[in-house]
Amino acid sequence: MKGYGEQPFGSWAGHAWTTLRVALSGFVVAVIVSVPLAIFLVSSETFSRAVFPIIVAVHSIPIVAIAPIIIVILGAHDLPRIAITFLISFFPIVVTTTAGLGATPSELIELSRSLRAEPRRCMIDIRLPYALPYIFSALKISVTLSLVGAVVAEFVAAERGLGYFIQFSTVYFKLHQAFGALIILVALNITLFKSVDLAQRLFAPWSIPRKDE
């Protein structure tokens, strides 16, 4: 068996893929949950008053403190790591999307009401397009946080992944391997951020803030 200091490239790629898979899974779940939740928060003041404090309370719990509990409850496999990644990724999307939907100019809302547009059409045709710059800003933040969540989960319980790789490398004083994993994490973070930025430029270029000339 090879020593831990003799990791082949394939093993490095395997650790990176494990972390990336968990991070993207948690991020996608966060988007699927957060955007509809933000729509409900804006649509119903009663719902907002009841649920928003709970969201803030959940976010205020240090992820490092709750991660071991989640691992014990859900088991040592991908599901708890995805749950941890979700918890650290969803809050910026909920808050920023809610702010964007709520920042729609009141005259546009009044115009839609004067035209007897249904609330659903107002949300889809007016509020959501207006909120896209906010949403993409939140996605850029959350997609990088998803990697943080994945690594934190791997620190707690994992047998593969860059977080596990870093932890095991430092235990055996293989600092060059730990720094190598850190460089890979930085590269993944930049790639994910740029991917969201590219998606915005391709699918909603008008939502990109323009610099004053």
Question: Low-confidence stretches at least 5 residues in length (pLDDT < 50)?
Answer: 1-10
Helix content: over 70%
As for the number of domains, it is 1
Order of helices and strands: HHHHHHHH
End-to-end separation:
62 Å
Largest sheet composition: none
The third-level CATH topology is MetI-like fold
Number of strands: 0
Structural class by SSE content: mainly alpha
What does the average pLDDT come to? 85
Task: Write the CATH architecture name.
Answer: Orthogonal Bundle
Compute the gyration radius: what is it?
Answer: 20 Å
| DSSP strand content | under 5%
Q: In DSSP terms, counting alpha (H) and pi (I) runs of 4 or more, how many helices?
A: 8
Report a brief summary of the structure.
The protein is mostly helical. It is built from eight helices and no strands. The chain is elongated and about 70 Å long.
Characterization of this structure:
It is a single chain. By secondary structure, the chain is an all-alpha fold. It has 8 helices and no strands. The chain has a single domain, classed as MetI-like fold, CATH 1.10.3720.10. The chain has helices at 9-43, 45-60, 63-74, 78-102, 106-114, 119-156, 162-171, 175-203. Helix 6 (119-156) runs antiparallel to helix 8. The longest helix has 38 residues, at 119-156. It is elongated and about 70 Å long.
